């Protein structure tokens, strides 16, 4: 991933937290051509050491290339938006602010037991926030037995991890304040999130 030095974010805490808060990722494999699937990919482990896990449908074209030891690229992306230079005090060039984490990893296929445990973790992570959560073990066993043979689970063992946060670092304070004002006043929640990220990165109150 191209990263200007001032935007590099390789801090372990940043990487772990970013993946934790942006689990819907782009999963890329190299087949006869580059193939990508958009799926939730979760963490297992702690800041000091972790791996990722997920699953794909067996009718997914990627399955043919989902092999033990194969290389994958996982892209996690945060809030992003166009930044108009009309918001600056002086004329300048418009840009796009964003943040992302790229993980190069080796694939390790899951056993049937590991797949079920991963699914329980996946469902629990998102169901626990619901008013009346429906956990994995509450789903009829017959339904699970019909669906489990249709998916393949896998681990992703990272060997290269890169983070980036292009959040108007090194811009004049006045311009940063104007940028965040416009983003936070938008009805677009992604722009709101980006505005908050820019304020935090640049210590703007």
Automatic annotation (TrEMBL):
Recorded hits in Pfam families, A to Z, give: FMN_bind_2
Q: From the UniProt record, which GO molecular function terms apply? A: peptidase activity
What are the entry keywords? Answer: Coiled coil, Hydrolase, Protease
Report which residue ranges the record marks as coiled coil. 105-132
UniProt xrefs under InterPro entries: Split_barrel_FMN-bd, TR_PAI2-type
Please give a single GO biological process term from the UniProt record: proteolysis
Name by which UniProt lists this protein: Protease synthase and sporulation protein PAI 2
The gene designation is: paiB
